[in-house]
Amino acid sequence: MSWLPCPGAGPTSAPAAAAAFVYDAASLRVNWERLHRGDCEAFPARAALVEAWIAFHAGDFHRAMKLGLAQGVCGYAVAHKATCAYAGEVETSPATRLALFELVAERCERHQLEQPDNPAAWYWQAYALGRCAQTISIVKALAKGLAPKVRHGFRHAVTLAPAHADAWIGLGVYQSEIVGAAGPLIAGITYGARKEDSHAAFRRAIALNPDSPSAYMEYANAQLRFDGRKYLDAARLLYRQAAALQAMDVAERLAIGRAQRQLDAA
After folding, report:
1. Measuring CA to CA, which residue among 74, 110, 96, 84 is closest to residue 170?
2. Which of 154, 202, 243, 247 could form a disulfide with 126 if both were Cys (CB 3.0 to 4.6 A apart)?
3. pLDDT tens for residues 11-51?
């Protein structure tokens, strides 16, 4: 399938904006900790993977995916991330978006077999399945039995990497989606999802990575799922915090733009 160009990336974007996120190997290493505080990825030893991550941060998600896959399982993390970023932020077709998330979830099966101690193998499967659930509806996803696999993936990721802020975000989203769809009683008894655990997961994510627009934005979304009237002011504050952050790559810039739109709509 062909991929659409990413807004704000490549030669069609404003030159200054595009250049801001084009790293070379040296500048990528300098900024690596800030860029990967959310996923705890180690700086790659292979030059080809350095190029893949440079492409990802510049918003060339398709190239990042191809370069990652060309390196085999060692490149799966950047391939997963690029595919999910494209599907979530750029792709306009729900069917194509769903197919891409399903592809990542399937690929993670091999990733888990070959690198069982790599948190990315578990995180990206849980993330992709969670996005599949959002695409087809949470109720349908519960009927298909996706919830236990999503919960296990995020929990296993934070077991392997307790500082994995993105996995804590995933746990917070998981809890809020289940509570919102099934109600607090069934969510807690059947799926182990609780409102207080969602709040705790998001607070943990923000403490670990206070520069993540997704942490604030997803926490705002979660609070609106719990009770839009009760938490509206808190959600607006979180959207405002996300929108005020400074992006370090194209993916973050897209997330900040989405936060601004949600703030305007709240």
Report:
1. 84
2. 154
3. 444 444 456 799 999 999 999 999 999 999 999 999 999 99
Q: What are phi and psi of 145, to 5 degrees?
A: 80, 25
Query: Cα–chain-centroid distance for residue 132?
Result: 13
Contact assessment for residue 147 and residue 188, using Cβ atoms and an 8 Å cutoff = no
> What are the C-alpha distances in Å from 11 to residues 7, 88, 251?
11, 22, 17
Confidence band of 127 (pLDDT split at 50, 70, 90): very high
- Band of pLDDT at residue 140, cut at 50, 70 and 90: confident
